[in-house]
Amino acid sequence: MSLDFGFILITIFTAIVSFSTLSHALLHPSSQPASSVSHNVSRSRYYMTTNEIWFNQTLDHDSPNDHRKFRQRHYEFMDYFRSPDGPMFMIICGEGPCSGIANDYINESLNKKLNISSGGSDNPWFFFGISYSGALSAWFRLKFPHLTCGSLASSAVVRAIYEFSEFDQQLDVDADFLYLTADAAVMAFQYGNPDKLCVPLVEAKKNGSDLVVTYSTYVREYCMRIWGLRVRTYNRKHLRNTVVTADSAYRLWWFQACTELGYFQVAPKYDSVRSHQINTTFHLDLCKSLFGKDVYPKVDATNLYYGGDRLAATKIIFTNGSEDPWRHASKQNSTHEMPSYIIKCRNCGHGSDIRGCPQSPMVIEGKSNNCSLPDYVNKVRQQMVEHIDLWLSECRQSIRSSI
């Protein structure tokens, strides 16, 4: 029994797409050169589609009296969808802008089918997301289990944290800088490239070279040139700007942090790469400066509402890279209904199960052969496919029995 099916891809701006299956893609990613795509790539040939579709979205779904709308963007890829009953995969993009539906390992999945019988009139839905959108994927399954067959929550930050000192405890370097420079240091670990930071610093120390000069070269050549890190996005005057630009995502993320999620990346008590001036007071002052004096991160309320890393849900796959500092905000203990996998390798970072590693430059095809232990990454991907296959099959049977 086999089925050609579609998936629906949704972002913060929404994207809808259809395709055949994840299984081949997860286990046999694209063979394009690892250096072919950078983090800032926007060339259309790296996407299944970049055609924008807009619709009028309700601003507040919880208010019966608020009828305001806003224009929301989404993308559709229906080439491999088998009408009328193919499963729909919805992929939620992160807190930054999306340029289209990436031509990643998912596209390769079109060559192989999941073992799902046809029949029934409704389309089963499966949700995907990485990082904050991974949390959204898990929370959607938690709140609307009757609308989904399951979710993949990759590096999902489901636990709101007021003082997130664990974020910097992935590191051990010989310098202690301010917020931007500390974020730059963590970036190497988060995206699976510790050698980009550690090797030059170790060599500089051995040779008696200036560590600050070495570090500044790393920030300029790696963080700014490859990852597009901008100094102005750490500037309060810039963050106060409410005019919608390409940088607006930074202000929007700070609003999420200042009101609901926290994630205040304060300096750990010992062995910190973050200045001790970057403390709770610094973050609260920043929130007040940007959004007013009454803004405060209600992390306890967020965790009470969603459950934090103890959410009472079913059929959610959690995955985290062992080198990813954000894994401390995710669900790391595994249960039968919510399996959790830690992808253990030296350069397995944020979303390595989907993005591959290392992620410098970004390889949106999701290659795993650049991971220090590619077999381990592929094993986790195989387990992901098996869960998705099973849950979609169960979902299909449930749909048939209700007809």
Automatic annotation (TrEMBL):
A GO biological-process term: proteolysis
InterPro entries: AB_hydrolase_fold, Peptidase_S28
Entry keyword set: Glycoprotein, Hydrolase, Protease, Signal
Keyword Lipid biosynthesis set for record: no
One function term, GO molecular function aspect: serine-type exopeptidase activity
Family as reported in the entry's similarity comment: Belongs to the peptidase S28 family.
Protein name: (thale cress) hypothetical protein
Species for this entry: Arabidopsis thaliana
